[in-house]
Write a structure and sequence with these properties.
The chain has 238 residues and is mostly helical. The protein is built from 11 helices and 3 strands, in the order ααβαααααββαααα.
Length: 238
C-alpha cells in the first residue's frame, strides 16, 4: 500500500514537472514572438502535409498597407483597438439561445483578432470537440499576447500568419498571388477582397471572386469608411 502511494505521488510529480516545463517553453516562445515571426504554425504544417503547399512571406508593419489593417479591423473586430482581448458582448450574443432560433456557432465574427492570432500561432484549427478543448488555452494565450505583444504586434502577426487561400498564408503572399503586387501597394478595394475571403479562404476564393467575396468586399469597404476617422483606429494604424 505504501509503495503504491509512493508510485502515485511519483507519477503526479512527473506530470506536474512536465506541465511546468511545457509552460516555460511555451512562455519563452511567446516572448520571442514579440520580436521574431513564428517559424511555422500547426495550420501551416497541416497544409504542407496535405500537399496544399506553403506560400508565405512575412513582412513588417511598415510593409503592410494601412488599407489592409483597416479592412481587417472593419471586417473581423471593430473593437480591436480598445478591448482587452475579448468581445464580451459578442460572446454573450453567440451563447444566447433564448429566441428559440438555431444560431450560428461562435466563429470569426464573434472571435476577436487577438483570439484568432492566439489560435493560429499557438494552437490548432478545427471544430467539434477539439474546438472546446482549445478554448481554455486560447483564452490563456489571448490574455498573454495582449499584455506582452500589444495591439500593433498582434495585428502584424495576424496579417502574416492567417490563411488567405489554399496554401497561401499572410497578406504578402496573398497580395502577390491575387494582384501581383506587394502588400504595401494594396488599394482599399483589393484589401477588402482579400479580407472578405475569411474565415474560409479555401471556399471563398479571391480570384476568381466567389459570390461571398463579391458581396462581402463592398460591405467591408463601407465599414472601413465608417471607422477610418475613429481616434483609436487612427492611433493604431499610425
Amino acid at each position: 500500500m505504501v509503495k503504491r502511494k509512493k508510485n502515485k505521488r511519483g507519477i503526479i510529480r512527473k506530470i506536474l514537472h512536465a506541465v511546468v516545463l511545457l509552460f516555460l517553453i511555451s512562455f519563452t516562445y511567446l516572448l520571442l514572438c514579440k520580436w521574431i515571426f513564428p517559424p511555422v504554425t500547426v495550420t501551416q504544417l497541416t497544409s504542407l502535409l496535405k500537399g496544399e503547399g506553403l506560400h508565405r512571406n512575412y513582412v513588417n508593419w511598415s510593409e503592410i498597407s494601412p488599407n489592409v489593417k483597416l479592412a481587417a479591423i472593419a471586417s473581423e473586430d471593430q473593437l480591436f483597438p480598445t478591448h482587452e482581448g475579448f468581445d464580451w458582448k459578442a460572446i454573450e450574443k453567440s451563447m444566447d439561445n433564448t429566441s428559440g432560433k438555431r444560431r450560428r456557432p461562435r466563429g470569426a465574427a464573434a472571435s476577436t483578432i487577438t483570439q484568432q492570432t492566439a489560435k493560429n500561432v499557438f494552437l490548432w484549427q478545427g471544430n467539434g470537440w477539439s474546438r472546446y478543448l482549445r478554448k481554455a488555452p486560447e483564452a490563456f494565450y489571448t490574455k498573454l499576447i495582449e499584455w506582452i505583444w500589444g495591439k500593433k504586434r498582434i495585428l502584424e502577426i495576424y496579417l502574416n500568419v492567417i490563411e488567405m487561400g489554399k496554401g497561401i498564408y499572410g497578406i504578402e503572399a496573398a497580395s502577390q498571388a491575387y494582384f501581383h503586387k506587394s502588400a504595401r501597394q494594396l488599394s482599399a478595394g483589393e484589401a477588402a477582397m482579400i479580407i472578405a475571403c475569411l474565415p474560409n479562404p479555401k471556399v471563398f476564393t479571391v480570384v476568381p471572386a466567389s459570390k461571398r467575396v463579391q458581396w462581402r468586399a463592398p460591405a467591408i469597404m463601407r465599414q472601413m469608411k465608417l471607422i477610418h476617422s475613429d481616434p483609436e483606429v487612427l492611433k493604431l494604424l499610425q
